[in-house]
């Protein structure tokens, strides 16, 4: 009799419904993650679509939704910066690109965008510093550095770099014009 009771209790524990509840919770977490990913993608692609038809403010709103779903995504921060720059909101553009560069400090395209912001802000000294970082990664980007030296009235540095660039790569039409002006 005791053996039967022990057997019934043991079998009862094997088929306990608590095990089923624990298994159901795993897919729910997965569904939430998939749902967030889908929402993120929808908002992100809407933002790109709005940007393409020059609705920059609506694009920013969609990107803010993306940022709420997955905070501090470097791609979202980069896109926010580009949209703010297109609205001529330089301070906001700087804010977002600097946050993106905190995540990925050597990203070539984000550094190029930062130079664009700095040029638009007429902060040529900072643009030169940023461009020097870019040149370390990609030496052929020195042509942009020549232009920045010229804009910052550092004519001797520009001329020296033109000669170096001319020997290594040759001069483009734009660089020939700068050399002629110098």
Structure notes:
The structure is a single chain. This protein has helices at 2-14, 18-52, 56-69, 74-86, 90-103, 108-120, 124-137, 142-151, 155-168, 173-181. It has 182 residues and is mostly helical. It is elongated. The protein has ten helices and no strands. The longest helix is centred in the first third of the chain and has 35 residues, at 18-52. The mean pLDDT is 86.
Please compute the radius of gyration using only Cα atoms: 28 Å
Report on the biggest sheet: none
**Proportion of β residues?**
under 5%
Low-confidence stretches: none
Q: Mean of residue pLDDT?
A: 86
| Helical run tally | 10
**Strand segment count:** 0
> What letter string, H or E per element, gives the SSE order?
HHHHHHHHHH
Helix coverage percent:
over 70%
Shape: elongated
Overall structural class, as computed from helix and strand content, comes to mainly alpha
Distance between the termini: 107 Å
Keywords:
mainly alpha; 182 residues; single chain
Brief characterization of the structure:
The protein has 182 residues and is mainly α. It contains ten helices and no strands.
């Amino acid at each position: 009799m005791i053996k039967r009771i022990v057997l019934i209790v043991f079998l009862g524990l094997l088929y306990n419904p608590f095990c089923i509840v624990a298994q159901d919770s795993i897919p729910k977490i997965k569904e939430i993650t998939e749902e967030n990913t889908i929402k993120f993608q929808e908002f992100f692609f809407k933002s790109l679509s709005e940007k393409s038809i020059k609705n920059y403010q609506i694009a920013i709103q969609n990107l803010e939704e993306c940022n709420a779903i997955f905070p501090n995504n470097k791609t979202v921060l980069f896109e926010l910066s580009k949209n703010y720059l297109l609205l001529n909101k330089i301070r906001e553009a700087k804010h977002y690109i600097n946050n993106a560069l905190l995540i990925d400090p050597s990203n070539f395209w984000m550094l190029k965008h930062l130079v664009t912001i700095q040029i638009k802000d007429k902060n040529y000294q900072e643009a030169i510093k940023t461009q020097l970082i870019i040149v370390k990664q990609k030496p052929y980007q020195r042509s942009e550095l020549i232009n920045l030296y010229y804009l910052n009235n550092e004519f001797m540095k520009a001329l020296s770099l033109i000669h170096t660039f001319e020997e290594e790569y040759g001069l483009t039409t734009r660089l020939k014009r700068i050399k002629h002006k110098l």
